[in-house]
């Protein structure tokens, strides 16, 4: 981590557009190995920081945190830890396992409330997304921490909060016609076809030959990469993916 903070500190980023900074920082991690469930470790909830292997969410959180530090002009490990925790937990307060923003639609909404980003999906042509996630509380066997019934109950309450909000998404068949509203550096959250799950994958928009592609930690190639195909074509054949939500950092 210190090497990335040092690299970030060598340039005055205060006047750089935060989206441009996201793309730049995101490329620093290209070819980093993909490791799944990096946050799902036994024991008490910890602020996990492991850059040797990243899943799609930890890659996104790492890049967003570094880009925000670049704009803030603060480069210590303590600063990084504080800002990462603010991003990862409900209202920025780390507690037990249920305080983590497990559902990415909740992650977007909570960080929009903090002023860190804006959900721009509706602004660029998105339609209402019926979002009633219950996958985690319905399948505790997939999560070691959910052997604690109290945690399952807390998650159920959070799922009710998530389900009470209004969301938008861009159906995947509409992405090609609406992608001009997406900027390089925007956050891309791929929506699930399953009724009880919200988001199945996340990454960043990048431009390549005039088209929007996805820069992400890929479970297929097992590393951080830029998708070979444009985003619209990348999603098209995947039946588990229904479309995208798009968020944009505010630079704050």
From TrEMBL:
<dbReference type="Pfam" id="PF07313">
    <property type="entry name" value="AmiA-like"/>
</dbReference>
<dbReference type="InterPro" id="IPR038765">
    <property type="entry name" value="Papain-like_cys_pep_sf"/>
</dbReference>
<dbReference type="InterPro" id="IPR010846">
    <property type="entry name" value="AmiA-like"/>
</dbReference>
<protein>
    <submittedName>
        <fullName>Cytosolic protein</fullName>
    </submittedName>
</protein>
